[in-house]
Amino acid sequence: MYTIDDLKKYEYFNDFNAAYGLDFLTGVLSRANILGFAKHLVDNNIPFMMAILDIDNFKSVNDNYGHAVGDETLKFVAKGMKQYVGEDGLVGRFGGDEFIILYFKDITYNGVHDYLEGMLNNGGFVRKKVKIGDNIKLFVTATVGCATFPNDAKTYDELFQIADKALYRGKTKGRNCFIIYVESKHKNISVRRKEQSCLPNVFERISEISNNKKMAADDKIRHILNFITDTLQITESVFLKTDKTSLVGRVGFDCNIDDECLAIFDDLTKNDNIFIPNGLDISGIAVNKKISNFAQSKKIITFLVCRVKTDDETLGYLILFEGKITRIWQEFDISILLYFSKIIEIMYLKK
């Protein structure tokens, strides 16, 4: 919990009242105070970095374990964040599972990059298993978007808006990452861009391609794979057939498809027809050493696999994979994969 001594070096907090100025649950600054301080910095032309941190899939923590566990998770993350930021900035709770970090020390691109990379990898409060109570262990990750004043924005409203854009970009990349706002990359991102990527519209586009009578089945599958790769902004999507051939999206899947390769995916999808990583990267999965070796040889960080089958045979495996970040697969991703698997089954049954 912040104290008067922690804040007294900042003129803005001369009349600070801890009873009203701190978030009641986590002990970091309240929303009004962290945002008020950010506005004060802009008004006084003091350079700083603003980051918005969002705990990944926090709703599922409350839904699966209850709000008491959710509250303990928030307190753990806030405490770790406050300790990491230390004398170099301040932390406040924006609301729910979102926090604001204001950082002053080195707001160059490289400085901010090293700072956030250190926070996510070595900060001790995310990208790790957290024990809550006697027997609950959660793997906690977070997504961060940030921008700097006055490098990226000249007003508070603009600064918050572009930091929010960067956060949105991190979420669309699969979460569990940080995005530093760069105008040339992120200027045209629309945080409210949902009409083209909402699930019903994705399903509609997949159905539209699959019903194209002028295209062969394999061409339809390739087009849909390409569409999914673009929509989810992942490295690649693949349909690996049991005849040891594969259909791929845009990038291509460099895979020596042999009996051992097929056996890996058969084993992963044997029980539930779908394999969903538990939040750790592939190197942390203890299911089968062959999986780790396979993933490392293909430079895959994480993947999602679904068995495609008719009543009496396995047709192949749909695979979404990411080779750049440790993507946290969402219900959105899983729904698309399962829907597409049914589309492929229907295509083959019609042959």
What are the SSEs and their pairings?
Layout lengths: L3 H4 L10 H4 L9 H13 L4 E8 L2 H8 L1 H19 L3 E7 L2 E6 L5 H14 L5 E5 L3 E5 L1 E8 L6 H17 L5 E3 L2 H4 L12 H12 L6 H16 L3 E6 L4 E3 L10 H10 L5 E2 L13 H9 L4 E8 L4 E9 L8 H19 L2
Parallel strand pairs: 6-7
Antiparallel strand pairs: 1-3, 1-6, 2-3, 4-5, 8-9, 8-12, 10-11, 11-12
Explain the overall architecture:
The protein is an alpha+beta fold. The protein has 2 domains: 183 residues, Alpha-Beta Plaits (2-Layer Sandwich), CATH 3.30.70.270; 151 residues, 2-Layer Sandwich (Beta-Lactamase). The chain has 13 helices and 12 strands. It has a 5-stranded mixed β-sheet, with helices on both faces. Helix 4 packs antiparallel against helix 5, helix 9 packs parallel to helix 13 and helix 10 packs antiparallel against helix 13. It is elongated, with a radius of gyration of 23 Å. It starts with a helix and ends with a helix.
Summarize this structure briefly.
With 351 residues, the protein is an alpha+beta fold.
